[in-house]
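note to self — DONT lose this again. spent like an hour looking for the file last time. sequence + predicted structure for the chain T wanted, 188 res
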Amino acid sequence: MRFVLAAVACLAAPIAVQAQTPDGMAAWSRIYAVASHPRCTNCHVGSSGRPAWDDLGYGRNRLHGMNIVADASRIGAESIPCRACHISAAGENAVPHSAPQIDDAWRLPPVELAWRGKSSAEVCTQLRDPETNDGFDLVGLIDHVRTSAFVNYGFKPGAGRNSAPGSVASLAQDLQTWGDAGMPCEEG
């Protein structure tokens, strides 16, 4: 009898994982909708160090004003530091197109976290690998989403600014669902 129960349990496990895969892929689609939104990709620019203002009320394919290049420092120390205009203190961001404020030091994400122009499969592969996602396992990635002032700003950028779709809570839940399903990625 124990053998039969063990055999049933072994056979049922792959079915449960397969049943979660569609949920995981649906969650990934929502995660990618956030990661590929201009509110995120304008700073997740990679080695170019050139943040953008794409689709944030200034038109498409628009680089950040004042010819900003964050370079290797990721804070613009080589040209104009981010903090010259961006305010590193909590604020309401109530005035459209005024200097944005968050309770953290403004900077671009690490080069490894470039998402701008990348496909869903590329970003998915990148995010599920701690070697290419700034060292996060799933729990760390979810914690980062919940606690990062930058992520929070992406969903609540203030007056006159387009926000990423969803919320911090929904993104954290989608990451959990995606992780529970084995972090599936689209082919390609």
